[in-house]
Amino acid sequence: MLPRHAADRLRTALADRPVVLLHGARQAGKTTLVRAIAEERGARYVTLDDLTMLAAARDDAAGFLAGFAEPLVLDEVQRAPELLLAIKAAVDRKRTPGRFLLTGSANVLLLPRLAESLAGRMEIVNLWPFSQGEIEGAVEGFIDAVFTDAPPVPGRSSSSVRLTDRILRGGYPEAFSIESAERRRAWFDSYVTTILQRDVRDLSRIEGLTELPRLLSLLASRPMAQLNFADLSRGTGLPQTTLKRYFALLETVFLVRLLPPWYANIGKRLVKTPKVLLTDTGLAAHLMGIDRGRVAEDRGLLGGLTENFVAMELVKQAGWSMDPPTLYHFRTHEGDEVDFVLERRGGMLVGIEVKSAATVTAADFKGLRTLAELASRRFHRGIVLYTGAEIVPFGATLFAMPVEALWCWGTQPGVRKKVKP
């Protein structure tokens, strides 16, 4: 398997916390990672995808836990919420670090009953599909680099994989390993069916969620669009109350994610609506019916997907940043916008704009200049990521940079894996 950057954070958390939860979408690689950690630690691995184990855990959670030696790895713990109260009781009796390593394919932060069970006792680590650095065998440091005073420096990817192929393939480990585009389409079809027919139904206890695939496809067709339930209601024919419930379910199983707006109380009229992104561009492209052939005919199809791709690379990198920023978007009612605003806890801001073109002009920095004016001394740097190859300064704090800087600037070298184009 490719080394995962979340592994070190898992080991650190297990060294001082009694319970650690690794959560993320199905097929993101959670099971592979925790099996490796379990082997390192001599821990017992138990999966609740096993129906016998699941039945026992639901029937007598405390007795189920008592029957296993520790440390214990419990895979897909959201399938038996009863276990969390039993784990809480066990931890309250003895707070030894590293007792339980859990995984979940549902976001417990969006499931109040689960989140409250282990509040203050559990550390949560996210695992997303492969980042580009994981694919290339190096730890990305782009986020930390953009907040330094050092000027951007050139870097080159070790592989010849084109940006288009990176976007279309996505990062799910199993799908990534499939060379045939036809077989990869079949994998994505099965994946969506499994998630929507089993996981979402298990969480919601609702039968007949027949409109969910259509809603997911509609969201995929509008990458990085503002969330507008009235518009989605017209597109699906579903009432807004139902749409909001369905959207929350898609969020819970890590298929979609919201990007909140950045704004400050500075007297300007700013758009305060979040944007929606799919958590994997390979899945988004599949749902849109986009492949290499269609992109070759219409490069415009990649616009929103490229922005979505950059968004998720930033989200992933925030997981191992030294001082992880919060990610926002910025837009004024006058139309000035910045695709991404990274804000650190001290208030320092970096703005990032994405352009699916090989050239950049001063006009492409208009939104960044507006953000810099509003944020004043908090604004540290503005970057336009584009598909060209050079780093070009457009001012003391404004730069055009290649998209591949995301995994080449500030990167810590490692054992690189040869990736097929």
Short synopsis of the structure:
This protein is about 40% helix and about 15% strand. It contains 19 helices and 13 strands.
Q: Could you characterize what this model shows?
A:
The protein is built from 19 helices and 13 strands. The protein is an alpha/beta fold. It has two domains: 6-126, P-loop containing nucleotide triphosphate hydrolases (Rossmann fold, 3-Layer(aba) Sandwich); 132-408, no CATH class. The longest helix has 24 residues, at 181-204. The two termini are 19 Å apart.
Radius of gyration: 22 Å
Average of pLDDT? 90
Strand content: 15-25%
Question: Reading side by side through the largest sheet, how are the strands ordered?
Answer: 8-9-10-11-13-12
Number of helices: 19
Which properties best describe this structure?
421 residues, alpha/beta, Rossmann fold, six-stranded mixed β-sheet
Helix and strand layout, with pairings?
Layout: H1 6-16, E1 19-23, H2 30-41, E2 44-47, H3 51-59, H4 61-66, E3 72-75, H5 82-93, E4 100-104, H6 112-117, E5 122-126, H7 132-136, H8 142-146, H9 163-169, H10 173-176, H11 181-204, H12 212-220, H13 229-236, H14 240-252, E6 256-259, E7 275-278, H15 281-288, H16 292-297, H17 302-318, E8 326-331, E9 337-343, E10 349-354, H18 366-375, E11 379-386, E12 392-393, E13 398-402, H19 405-408
Parallel strand pairs: 1-4, 1-5, 2-3, 3-4, 10-11, 11-13
Antiparallel strand pairs: 6-7, 8-9, 9-10, 12-13
Helix pairs in contact: 9-15
